[in-house]
Amino acid sequence: MDFQKNRDEVFQAVAHATREAHRPHNSVKIIAVTKYVDSSIAKELIKTGIDHIGENRVDKFLEKYEVLADENLTWHLIGSLQRRKVKDIINYLDYFHALDSIKLATEIQKRANKTIKCFLQVNISREESKHGFMVEEIRQAIKAIRNYDKIELVGLMTMAPFDADKKQLDEIFSKAHALQKELSQLGIANMPFTELSMGMSGDYKEAILHGSTFVRIGTAFFK
Ligand SMILES: *Cc1c(COP(=O)(O)O)cnc(C)c1O
């Protein structure tokens, strides 16, 4: 694998999509999702110029963190988190992308020693298999979480169906963007809602067109 080449291709494609969307240069941050490889291979990729690293599982996150904690990275947990594992990981995170229940928020509030930047995961596509709040549950979540000083709701995270076509992607990503803008207007102190975590290797261009500020990319780095 030529990591430098893959890295440069991904960064150039993201920059291109950002220009096409008439958005400011560097307004989209790229999270390298290293879940497919072990720590030593992840380290090789990181040396090519990576600032943000993401893992979807607690055990794999901790494995990487042990080896790469000194690398000046911003650490993202992008996958769902079981309540009983919150205490093992929460204080190593910079960003948590999959806040999907009020009970989980309550456990984070209890265990965190610092404020954790969190994304509310929202199930825009309404797929049965997907985690996340339904749109109509979000108001209630906000009401519960607004009193939690260890949680900062920086934005929304969503995932499109694996086999979504262009039309479905546009629909899902534009709905998420509209909802994020609406929530940002609420002006709640610990809920800026300025960010949108959406877009993976197969759909980040569409996500950037619809306002994504964090793309989570794995496969494209490891081909
Ligand atoms: C694996 C994963 C990604 C990256 O997916 P690729 O298609 O490999 O780019 C993004 N988000 C989440 C939540 C993931 O689990």
From TrEMBL:
For this UniProt entry, the molecular function terms from Gene Ontology, in alphabetical order, are: pyridoxal phosphate binding
- SUPFAM superfamilies in the record, alphabetically? PLP-binding barrel
Which keywords does this chain's UniProt record carry?
Pyridoxal phosphate
Question: Which InterPro entries does the record associate with it?
Answer: Ala_racemase_N, PLP-binding_barrel, PyrdxlP_homeostasis
Which cofactors?
pyridoxal 5'-phosphate
Modified sites of kind N6-(pyridoxal phosphate)lysine: 35
Domain Alanine racemase N-terminal, first and last residues per copy: 13-222
Keyword Protein biosynthesis listed? The answer is no
Q: Which domain of life is it from?
A: Bacteria
Question: What is the recorded function of this protein according to its Swiss-Prot or TrEMBL entry?
Answer: Pyridoxal 5'-phosphate (PLP)-binding protein, which is involved in PLP homeostasis.
The entry assigns this protein to a family as follows: Belongs to the pyridoxal phosphate-binding protein YggS/PROSC family.
Q: What is this protein called?
A: Pyridoxal phosphate homeostasis protein
Per the UniProt entry, what species is this protein from, by scientific name?
Streptococcus varani
